[in-house]
Amino acid sequence: MIYILDDDEAMADSMFWLVTAMGFSAKVCLNPAQFIKEYQPEPSDKLIVDIRMPEISPYEFRVELKKHNIQIPLIYVSALIDDGRSDLVKTLSNNDFNQVLGFLSKPFEPEHLQNLLAA
Predict the structure, then answer these.
(1) Cis peptide leading into 107, omega within 30 of 0?
(2) Where are the domains of the chain?
(3) Could you count the other beta carbons within 10 Å of the beta carbon of residue 110?
């Protein structure tokens, strides 16, 4: 299952349709609490997560995942990821609990996402 965590419902729906068109099963969660409540671990799970959510920072979200013992490979998505935000990328990549598969900067090429999901 590919979980999509984004507080922007239109963005989450777009990502859902893209992921399912690639042949993956997907589930949308509009906030971190919903994801934590509904997550059912499977070996092939991945989480596409927007870096900017109003309820929680990416750092706080990592703490919540660890607190709930949720280990899932992460794909971060944001319009903020570029060379000027390399500090954020480095910090989020240095994750001793959840594997970070990659970062997607909006807009991104669907093939890039597909490669990350197939990893």
Answers:
(1) yes
(2) 2-118
(3) 12
> In 3D, which of 101, 40, 108, 44 has the Cα closest to residue 70?
40
Residue by residue, pLDDT tens for the chain (119 residues) are: 999 999 999 999 999 999 999 999 999 999 999 999 999 999 899 999 998 888 888 888 888 999 999 999 999 898 765 544 445 555 555 656 568 888 888 888 999 999 999 98
DSSP 4-33: EE-S-HHHHHHHHHHHHHTT--EEEESSHH
The amino acid at residue 15 is M
Does the domain spanning 2-118 belong to CATH 3.20.170.30? no
Angle of the 58-67 helix axis to the 86-93 helix axis, nearest 10 = 10
Q: What is the CA radius of gyration of the chain?
A: 13
